[in-house]
Amino acid sequence: MKIYGVGAAEGIGIGIAKVVKEQSVEVVKRTVSDTEAEVVNFTEILELTKAETEEMSKSLERNASAKEAEILVGHIMLMSDPMLIDEMVNLIKNEKVCAEYAVEGVCNQYAAVFASMDDELMQQRAADMRDIKNRLIKKILGLESNDLSTLPHGSILVAKDLTPSMTAGLNPENVFGIVTEFGGKTSHSAILARALEIPAVVGLSDLPQDIKDNTEILLDGESGEVIILPTEDEKKEYTGKKKKYDENKEFLKKYLTLPSVSKDGKKVEIAGNIGSPEDVKKVIENGGEGIGLF
């Protein structure tokens, strides 16, 4: 079965599906009598989540770069915003509501503001805010989050969508590809997939909802093609495509540091196209001398 989405991170992925389903969380408005204890619990969980995000940021810096780690640093900054925290605390104290209800209300409000902005980069903050909201609420309710760092070697991650924190936790040595129903090429998750050099196809509106773990999947992160339960001929074709892609990637590396000069001695500037400022690092790594199209 062939389906097509948006190629978000180039490369050829060949592996078996590992389906990640986020646990839906229903937040119920509860009245609390001891608001001080509720605020203390909320504050402790907030600090714990910030500490975990700091560790994730350090791990991402090791696996990708400091530039990509800044996405999670942005999460820490949002969780450290006095105005944001005060709104949640005041809601708990003044309305005598539970912490998870306060978090959902305030985070949804901020996410809506970010989503309504014209700046595409600011719009990404809406996804960041929803990511933070879900992580905080799960911790408050004592629910487990998916640990994607333990995915086995050869995994093709299949999900409805990926949050930045989920993508940052991936081990690029084990994950051979990412396939999601939602998402776009400029999302923070797509940026992180490119930084981790994990082939990714997003925006697959036709992605079957009944894909099982260990289903064979092939994907082309440039064309956006995904093949589920491939035939032997298709597996052979993709094995050849991957071999060619990997060989070409290695072949081109030897030219990265050489000057761009034509046969008649004229200097030529090699510029790269980027979808966001975060892509500048890759242009530099690949020998780019400027930006051709933004």
Largest sheet: 8 strands, mixed
Strand content: 15-25%
Look at the structure and give the mean pLDDT: 90
CATH superfamily of the largest domain: Phosphohistidine domain
Task: Write down the CATH class of the largest domain.
Answer: Alpha Beta
What fraction, in percent, of the residue positions are helical? 40-55%
Cα separation of the termini? 35 Å
Q: Please name the CATH topology of the largest domain.
A: Glucose Oxidase, domain 1
Contiguous runs where pLDDT drops below 50 for at least 5 residues: none
CATH architecture of the largest domain: 3-Layer(bba) Sandwich
Number of discrete domains: 3
Order of helices and strands: EEEHHHHHEHEHEEEHEHE
Number of strands: 10
Helix tally equals 9
Which structural category fits the helices and strands? alpha/beta
Strand order of the largest sheet: 1-8-7-3-4-5-6-2
Compute the gyration radius: what is it?
A: 22 Å
Gross geometry: globular
Note down, in words, how this protein is organized.
The protein is an alpha/beta fold and 294 residues long. The protein folds into 3 domains: 2-22 and 147-244, Phosphohistidine domain (Glucose Oxidase, domain 1, 3-Layer(bba) Sandwich); 35-141, PtsI, HPr-binding domain (Enzyme I, Chain A, domain 2), CATH 1.10.274.10; 254-294, no CATH class. 47% of the residues lie in helices and 16% in strands. It contains 9 helices and 10 strands. It has helices at residues 35-63, 66-79, 82-95, 99-115, 120-141, 164-168, 188-195, 232-253, 280-285; strands spanning 2-4, 6-9, 12-20, 155-159, 175-180, 200-202, 216-220, 225-228, 271-273, 290-293. The protein has an 8-stranded mixed sheet with strand order 1-8-7-3-4-5-6-2. It is globular, with a radius of gyration of 22 Å. The two termini are 35 Å apart. The model has no long low-confidence stretch (mean pLDDT 90). Its cofactor is Mg(2+). Residues 152-224 form the PEP-utilising enzyme mobile domain. This is Phosphoenolpyruvate-protein phosphotransferase.
